[in-house]
Each structure stands twice: as structure tokens, then as C-alpha cells.
Design brief:
The complex is a heterodimer of chains A (112) and B (108). With 112 residues, chain A is mainly β. Chain A has no helices and eleven strands. Helix content of chain B is 0%, strand content 56%. Chain B is built from no helices and eleven strands. The chains are: A mainly beta (112), B mainly beta (108).
Chain lengths: 112, 108
């Protein structure tokens, strides 16, 4: 398996609090992604990164920000969590354009 | 805007039967991917289809791509219980868009 670690694995937080999820890779891959998975919606792209400090929005980026200061780390921040952001969040990496994604084990986030 | 639709969304089938999952997409794409997700687990890559007419097979699964029809199929031959999972198709080369998934349950 590709070396991808997501932390935390589970988190419960209250509405209005900031939350940061971390994705750490040991593969030195250029591309990193954050997806959320919800029943009936499959996986939806939140943000992605194509290099250090290079990021772009995905399909559902409102309410989320990201940062990538090192190749190995990609952070997803919910500035003020809402109940609609309760979801399972997956990080994925890719070594090049057109290569398949390798996924982390996911973070289950519950916003109460 | 690229849209990816899968059908059926749910599929319950008996062991030994054949069935096909369909993936339709709205705009041209260089390549198409199939992934598998076991319940409560992460996703793993199954196939990458690179061109029109591409066909790939592994075990009881065979994937094909028709870029003119903007359609990919995942065919299951003689299903076994171990194939029970959710299957996703996805498109893109650096910004990957996923379908809604097909949840397959194979009954013994």
C-alpha cells in the first residue's frame, strides 16, 4: 500500500469550531487530493494540490481551505464546522497526471 | 462541467450470475478508472482504461471503454460473494471526478 496516513481517524466536534485534518505521505508524490464521501453522492473533490504551495478548488470547496507547505503534508481546514460537513474525508495521492489515485484510510468527522 | 453517472446504484445478485455496471460521462476524457471499496474501507484501484475500445480483465471483472458513446462498463462474470463491494468509476487526468458508485451485493 502507498504510504498515506490520515489523522485523526475519527473526530467529533461542535458546530462553529475550526477543524484541521492532516494527510501525510511518504511516497514523494506530486499530487494530493481531499475528497468527501457521503451516501448518494459518491466521492466529491474538495481541493487538490499539484505541488508545494500550489492548490486549486474542486467540486465542493466552499467552507474548506487547504495548505501544502511540504511535499509530504496536505492539510484540510474547516474554518467553522457545520453539520453539513459531517462526512468521511479521504486523502489521495498520485505520482503523475493520469495515474490512478492511492487513498488513505479516511477520517470520519462528526459535527454536532 | 464533467458529470459522471453510474447505474445501477444498488445491485443484488446471486452467486454464479453475470451482470454489468454502467458508467456514463458528459464530456470527453483521456482516461477512465475503476475503483473498488469494501465496506468501511478505503478505495483501491482496479483498472485504468486509456483509449477507445480498451478492455482490461482481472479475474471475474472485465472493464471496457467506448469514448464515442462516453460509456464504460464493468462486467462481472459468475459472481462470487467476495466481489461484494462498492464500485466507482472516475475520470480525469489531474482533477479526478467520481461517479456515485454502485453497491454490489452477491448473495450466496
Amino acid at each position: 500500500d502507498a504510504g498515506i496516513t490520515q489523522s485523526p481517524r475519527h473526530k467529533v466536534t461542535e458546530t462553529g469550531t475550526p477543524v484541521t485534518l492532516r494527510c501525510h505521505q511518504t511516497e514523494n508524490h506530486r499530487y494530493m487530493y481531499w475528497y468527501r464521501q457521503d451516501p448518494g453522492h459518491g466521492l466529491r473533490l474538495i481541493h487538490y494540490s499539484y505541488g508545494v504551495k500550489d492548490t486549486d478548488k474542486g467540486e465542493v470547496s466552499d467552507g474548506y481551505s487547504v495548505s501544502r507547505s511540504k511535499t509530504e503534508d496536505f492539510l484540510l481546514t474547516l474554518e467553522s464546522a457545520t453539520s453539513s460537513q459531517t462526512s468521511v474525508y479521504f486523502c489521495a495521492i498520485s505520482e503523475s497526471t493520469g495515474a490512478p489515485l492511492h487513498f488513505g484510510n479516511g477520517t470520519r468527522l462528526t459535527v454536532t | 462541467e464533467l458529470k459522471v453517472e453510474q447505474n445501477p446504484l444498488f445491485l443484488s445478485m446471486q452467486e454464479g450470475k453475470n451482470y454489468t455496471i454502467y458508467c456514463n460521462y458528459s464530456t470527453t476524457s483521456d482516461r477512465l478508472y475503476w475503483y473498488r471499496q469494501d465496506p468501511g474501507k478505503s478505495l483501491e484501484s482496479l483498472f485504468v482504461l486509456l483509449s477507445n475500445g480498451a478492455v482490461k480483465q482481472e479475474g471475474r471483472l472485465m472493464a471496457s471503454l467506448d469514448t464515442k458513446a462516453r460509456l464504460s462498463t464493468l462486467h462481472i462474470t459468475a459472481a462470487v460473494h467476495d466481489l461484494s463491494a462498492t464500485y466507482f468509476c472516475a475520470l480525469g487526468t489531474y482533477k479526478y471526478i467520481f461517479g456515485t458508485g454502485t453497491r454490489l451485493k452477491v448473495l450466496a
